[in-house]
Design a protein that fits this description.
Isoaspartyl peptidase; globular; alpha+beta; eight-stranded mixed β-sheet; 34% helix; protease; hydrolase activity, acting on carbon-nitrogen (but not peptide) bonds, in linear amides; single chain; autocatalytic cleavage; 9 helices; 335 residues; hydrolase; four-stranded antiparallel β-sheet; 23% strand; Glutamine Phosphoribosylpyrophosphate, subunit 1, domain 1
């Protein structure tokens, strides 16, 4: 070995390690079940236990997929399926009612590796809207399908369709009656667990062992919504975004403001262009930019190194995380 080779070797050994590039977790998964005025005094012990149990059930489905080497896309989809099948959340089975007394679902999913994405809006017979979003992403030349066309595509893809009555829950129906009775012209998602909020959504973001990120979001929208209103959840860049170079994000909030703020993409852009950490980027958008516009809500996100955030500016957000060590965190209130 000559002197130049020895010098090069010495330099390599003494070069400082950049801690911002160290992967903190081999895989990570984070979920939300909606943000809003979630207060402990409004929650019975039984309901609190029910929410925590369902959040744990959902995230463990995705965790198991990731632990076994599965893809972040599969983990996101299957985790959201659990919450879509539960009447506790405003997505799938538990979707809120429109002004016309119907249920209209929106969903989206994005692959951070390819930047491919799929979304559906305004469907009323697709049992699991996140499954339709993924089918659109993988089996159509389009990104977003809506209404009857989206339902026709779902049928052609062999997805499970149900009668609109499947989505009826007494809780959501009574919430519509209360909103109409109070003549609230401002659209609201209202139930006895989340008081006077304007949103309720489920979502998931994940990093798999292969370094691929994915995010997905599913919602029933706002109670008493009209005219085919669509929020941020099915809009790529507003309610959902994933990019292996930065992070994966799912949002829950007042959709009109999250659309205007392009919230999910904005967090990624702050990381990409300004070099912000995931935590700083999420704080900038959720604690400063969205409130300045007049909106509120929250995000869950995971970056390419496995770091996770659950940022919100409301009284609470149903949320949970798990890392490669199997460490589970479940939160509901603004703790």
């Amino acid at each position: 070995m000559n002197q130049s080779e020895i010098k090069a070797l010495t330099y390599q050994k003494s070069e400082p390690v950049d801690s911002t590039k160290i992967r903190t977790s081999e895989f990570s998964i984070v979920i939300h079940g909606g943000a809003g005025t979630i207060l402990k005094e409004n929650m019975t012990p039984e309901k609190e236990a029910a929410y925590k149990a369902k959040l744990e059930e959902a995230i463990r489905v995705g965790y198991t997929i990731l632990k076994n080497g599965g893809s972040s896309l599969d983990a996101v989809q299957k985790t959201i399926n659990v919450m879509e099948d539960s009447p506790l959340f405003n997505a799938g089975k538990g979707a809120v009612f429109t002004n016309a007394g119907t249920n209209e679902h929106d969903a989206s999913i994005m692959d951070g590796k390819t930047l491919n994405a799929g979304a559906s809006a305004g469907t009323s017979t697709v049992k699991n809207p996140i499954n339709l979003a993924r089918a659109i992403m993988e089996h159509s030349p389009h990104v977003m399908l809506s209404g009857k066309g989206a339902e026709q595509f779902a049928k052609e893809q062999g997805l499970e369709l149900v009668s609109p009555e499947y989505f009826y829950t007494e809780k959501s129906f009574q919430a519509l009656q209360r909103v109409k009775k109070s003549e609230q012209v401002s659209l609201s998602f209202y139930n006895e667990d989340i008081k006077d909020t304007k949103f309720g959504t489920v979502g998931c973001a994940a990093l798999d062992k292969h370094g691929n990120l994915a995010a997905g979001t599913s919602t029933g929208g706002m109670t008493n919504k009209r005219w085919g209103r669509i929020g941020d959840s099915p809009i790529i860049g507003a309610g959902t975004y994933a990019n292996n170079a930065t992070c994966a994000v799912s949002c829950t909030g007042w959709g009109e403001y999250f659309i205007r703020g392009v919230v999910a993409y904005d967090i990624s852009a702050l990381m990409d262009y300004k070099g912000l950490s995931l935590r700083d980027a999420a704080k900038e958008v959720i604690q400063k930019k969205i409130p300045a516009l007049g909106g509120d809500g929250g995000v869950i996100a995971v970056d390419k190194l496995g770091n996770m955030v659950m940022e919100f500016n409301t009284a609470g957000m149903f949320r949970a995380t798990m890392n490669d060590k199997g460490e589970l965190y479940i939160g509901m209130y603004n703790e």
